[in-house]
Design goal:
Blueprint: E1 6-13, H1 18-30, E2 38-44, H2 53-61, E3 67-71, H3 78-88, E4 93-97, E5 102-103, H4 108-116, E6 121-125, E7 128-129, H5 144-157, E8 165-166, E9 171-174, H6 175-179, H7 189-195, H8 199-208, H9 213-219, E10 223-227, E11 233-234, E12 255-256, H10 258-264, H11 268-279
Parallel strand pairs: 1-2, 1-4, 2-3, 6-10
Antiparallel strand pairs: 4-9, 5-12, 6-9, 7-8, 10-11
Amino acid sequence: MINAKNAVVYLMYIPYGYIHFKNFIDSYNNYSAGIDHNFVIVFKDFQHTLELDQYIKYVEKKRIKFSYYLLQKNNDVDIGAYFYIAAKLKNENLFFLNTRSLILCQNWLLILNQSLNNNNIGAVGCTGSWGDFGRQNIYKGSNLLKYLFSIILFYFNYYPRVKEHLRTNSFLINRELFLSLKYTDPKPKILFRFLKISSKYKALCFEHGKNSLTQQLEKRNLCVKVVGKNGSCYTVDAWMDSLVFWNGNQENLMIHDNQTLLYHNSDNKMKLLLKHKAWGSNIFNR
């Protein structure tokens, strides 16, 4: 397969079930990316290769050109798989999608690619958050000791709050730049390993911790932007009003995931709570 400039990397976490895969492939088939690319599927945490037959046959049935990689069960989650596949591919830019993604508009990759080509842009994504909900302890143990440890973890990895961040689903980034980023265990590392905390916490830190994807790029004087299906590219201060994540009816969103679907399917009371978590008290001033 000839390498296109862009590769779309879809991570299918097998334990989540076939329906999520089918729904994504249908959306991928229904909405043109608008630009040439390689489509790569990463099958993660499968029990045996026979389990993959229905997945592969469904893509072939849609006559979609694709390649795939197999990543058997390990202790890491999405981000670790992203780094694994980024080291295998040769494309200039990679667009990462996780299992529960759903494409919502035509020319989605073209829109993102045009935005990434602007000067001083490190990464562009479909959603971002100001992260005021990070004032809460993200990891809470099942007993008092673990709860006290969670305060320590919060202090080292988030204090005084979660900063503005690009969410780590549906984002486009230069492959070599991505591979140069650090994906380290949360601090203090001794405590992290002693508690045997889920690798999900490590992924959360990479998304919105002190050494997140966004923070690492900004330290290199690169900015991150959210892109809407209207083709507009939004700086951090405009994310709330971009209407792509947990605000309005998310009418400018290009790609759904489990969190955007949570908001979409919530009643007004829950939507207000989610808006407050994502944007803080700013929602009351609009």
